[in-house]
Amino acid sequence: MSSNRCAVCKYFRRRCPSNCIFSPHFPPNNPQRFTCVHRIYGASNIGKMLEELAMEDRAIAVETLYYEAKCRVQDPVYGCAGLIPWLQQELNIAQSELAKTRAQIALVSANYVAFQLNGVDDDPSSSWFS
Amino acid sequence: MSSNRCAVCKYFRRRCPSNCIFSPHFPPNNPQRFTCVHRIYGASNIGKMLEELAMEDRAIAVETLYYEAKCRVQDPVYGCAGLIPWLQQELNIAQSELAKTRAQIALVSANYVAFQLNGVDDDPSSSWFS
């Protein structure tokens, strides 16, 4: 019976009840997963958070809590929150470059059409790819 | 004296010592800030995390912990970790669109040069802006 205890009950050296709230998410063969979230949130807070969630949401919640806890252990100052402004900045740069490049294409296209229709520019290439 | 207690010591109705680890980061006029991180991490874990950090890193750590806690309160399943794959996906989309658009420009440019030099294509526009 004791070999079936989840990682949390094993950690606290207690019996693992059949309705243990941790058991589906903290298997005994991965004690490091619990150690990590326990270090950041504490077992009691994790239990409380799981209790407040619907059964079908708990697995995702444990995954995201574990992800955030791992990031916090690796980077105790910024945690995973440090990634968000960096990603937002990279996204802004890429989107603004894309808008600029699309505007250049629209200009090239417009110049080419004007050149074909009216011959208004003897050397349209001078402005096309500048 | 009691009016100078930090939000944490006020919450626990205890004297706020002059070297209180929470005091610089949890002013008494913003009790909600502490309530939020306390709900997710617990005061004891926050204290432990702060103790392990250099003085100059603690303010940023509290900011990022508060940010993550707010996200977890708002979205108990995904927390702020849910934002990261979304931002990464948006960044991948924007970067791949940018690469495609730049490749189109390079093709247009090459076709135009070939057209000017050799007249190899009577109607280069057919492939330029497709």
Automatic annotation (TrEMBL), chains A, B:
UniProt cross-references to InterPro entries, sorted A to Z: LOB
Matching PROSITE patterns: LOB
Domain LOB: 4-105
Family in the record: Belongs to the LOB domain-containing protein family.
Record-given protein name: LOB domain-containing protein
Phylogenetic lineage: Eukaryota, Viridiplantae, Streptophyta, Embryophyta, Tracheophyta
